[in-house]
Design brief:
about 350 residues; alpha/beta; Rossmann fold; 14 helices; about 40% helix; about 15% strand
Amino acid sequence: MRERSLEFIVPGDLRSATGGYIYDRRILEGLRASGWRVAVHALDASFPLPTPAALDHARDVFSGIPDGALTVVDGLAFGAMPEVVSRHARRLRIVALVHHPLANENGLSPELAHQLAQSERVALRSVRRVVVTSEATADALIAYDVPRGSISVIVPGTDDAPLARGSADGVPNLLCVATLIPRKGHDLLIDSLHALAGLPWRLTCAGSLVRSPETAARVQSKVRDAGLAERVDFPGELNGAELARLYESADLFVLPTRYEGYGMAVAEALAFGLPVVSTRTGGIPGLVGDRAGLLVPPDDGASFARALARVLTDHALLAGLRVGARESRSRLPRWPQSCARMSQVLEEVMSA
């Protein structure tokens, strides 16, 4: 049997607790468990806006990979180095792993968004296959001139989890799991809760405070200015048992995200049977459906505040959404299936 061997290129620290890195890490763990030999090559963390030194290092990494090797490149770096990718496109079997188009990140200037879109469009011409994490991202790449037949959708998985038990004192525990960057909409969440300060609630925002220090400082300042510092906690980036404890003690998951490729934190919340208040973007509508939560248009703070008010004041509504969230658990994708699908796609690329 031919050895199944993979070169995996990713920028930054693969151990990071953000959705894209978690996906990469879990997929690689699954591939190794099924017999794949995986070599991980870490690029500089400055991607997707690489420094000249970062690009030089990326060139060295690609040059060191042997001819014919199956090479998966994480999209956070892939779309930002079209010249490097195209130089090796004929001798390597390159697969792009795109979580969402780089230009769709919130807060970019129009000029930078255009630059990233053009760069990623050129880079995507050099691949044997594109793997995306949601149907929404597959649809978005049609605008990048990627043939739909060359795109494989492999959604993130979930793990079995205990049902959330909720608050022990009757004050609803709200949980938001997201890196504090502009796209995640923490500003909208704090504005909404400021308007609902007369209601009982507590909020925990678990997520990195250092990926965008300006955003973190702005959101925390907004909390203080609104007089909510005693009710909002920012524990930083958590994973494993610490994060599981937050899910278990929560009553409601909240995420006013402006854009998602998929929505891994929403899927994880549903795995714990948590109802959701979020936005209609990426894979979130397919995860939440009509019974497990309330969804509003992205970047619509007024609608998000109204949805949150409904759930916090209508106990029958919250109870019904909790039932829907618990029913959804059995329909969630699982990591072994996602890893098996990735293995199948990679074998197809090797055989082509």
